[in-house]
Amino acid sequence: MGRNIAIKRFKVLAAVWIARAGGRDTLNGIFRFIEVNPDWQIVLVQNDAEFTPELVRTAKDRGFDGIIATIPGSVDTLAALAETPLPVVIKNVRSPAFTARRGPTAFIYNDNDAIGRLAAATLLKGGRYASFAYVPEFNTDWCRDRGKGFAARLSEGGEECRIFTSTS
Q1: What is the DSSP track for 90-123?
Q2: Phi, psi (rounded to 5 degrees) for 151
Q3: Rounded distance between C-alpha atoms, residue 4 and residue 73, angstroms
Q4: How far apart are CA 124 and CA 167, in angstroms?
Q5: pTM for this entry
Q6: Closest CA relative to residue 66, chosen from 41, 91, 46, 45
Q7: Residues 158 and 164 sit within 8 Å (Cβ to Cβ)
Q8: DSSP labels, 5-74
Q9: Which residues pair with 106 in a beta bridge?
Q10: Contact assessment for residue 91 and residue 70, using Cβ atoms and an 8 Å cutoff
Q11: What are the tens digits of pLDDT across the range 92-147?
């Protein structure tokens, strides 16, 4: 006679902004993980309005075993994330609140300088262009870092680059 063996299911809160390709790629990676780890259950929130301090503070009581966050959230949400005892994976979210975090934490950051340099190297290999410019989509550190890497690599290749500013 067989025994019933309880299998632990892991319930993870995933705060992933999927309005842009990078967020959809992250979510796709999470889904690929679930394909080979069917004992994981993901609950998705997609924006700052859903990713609230209250949700983070009560995540453990709601049965969550961990949190994946790619949405920065409000200052209060970041503080709650830094204080939760749950394991947290934080992707491309920087905050001084995390310096005092004691719980298990994994930080994942894009190398934006390298991304900008790779884009410039690709264009340099593609032929001769009359001019180069970098137009950031947002007025954020990651956009500025990509622009600096882009311009630096072009300069190394003997080209000039104009960098425009974004007001958004």
Answers
A1: EES---GGGGG--S-EEEE---HHHHHHHHHHHH
A2: -65, -40
A3: 42
A4: 28
A5: 0.78
A6: 41
A7: no
A8: -PPPPEEEEEE--TTSHHHHHHHHHHHHHHHH-TTEEEEEE-STTTS-HHHHHTTTTTT--EEEE-S---
A9: 89
A10: yes
A11: 888 888 888 888 999 999 999 999 999 999 999 988 899 999 998 877 888 899 99
